[in-house]
Amino acid sequence: MSRPRPILAGSIALGVAVAMLAGCSTSSPGTSVSSARAQENVSQACAAASAYAAALTDFKQTLKPGVTVGQLDSARDQVVKTYDDLIKAAQDVARDEVDAVKAAENEFDRAVKAVPDDATLTQAVGSLRDEAAKVQAAVSDLQTAAKC
Predict the structure, then answer these.
(1) Helix runs in 24-124, H state only
(2) Higher pLDDT, 102 or 19
C-alpha cells in the first residue's frame, strides 16, 4: 500500500515556498513608484538640511563682538525659514533625527530669545555658538541617517 501523504505534503510545501517568494518580489510597479518617491523625499530632505546647516553657520559668523540685535534677528530669521523647510522635507525620512533637531532648535531658540534687546551680545556669544553647534550636530546626524 502506498502512502500519498508525503507527496501531497511536499507539493503543498513547495507551493507555499513559491507563493512566498513571489510575494517578496521587488519588481512590482507600486514598489518602484514608492521607491522613486522615497528617493525624492531623501533628496529634498538632504537639500533642506544643507540649507539649514548653512544658515546656522551664517548665524554663528554673525556672533562677533559688537553685533547688534538687528543683525542677530536677521540671521535668526534665515535660520527659522530654513528650519521650517527642513522639518517639512525630512519628517518622513528620519523621524528620530528630526525630533532631535527639533529639540536642539528649541534650546537654540530659547538661548536667542534670552538675550536682552539692549545687549551687544558680547557675553552671550559663547553660549549662542554652543547652542548653534548642538543644532548643527543634530542636523549632521539627520544627514547621516538620511544618507545624504
Answers:
(1) 29-62, 69-90, 95-113
(2) 102
Picking from 146, 143, 114, the residue whose alpha carbon sits closest to that of residue 53 is: 143
Task: Read off the pLDDT of residues 108-136 as tens digits, 9 standing for 90 and up.
Answer: 888 878 877 666 666 677 778 888 888 98
What is the dihedral angle through the alpha carbons of 100, 106, 107, 111, rounded to the nearest 10 degrees? 150
pTM exceeds 0.70 for this model: no
d(CA 134, CA 66): 24
Distance, first Cα to last Cα, the chain = 67
Cell of 121: 551680545
Residue 30, CA atoms < 13 Å, CB-side half-sphere: 2
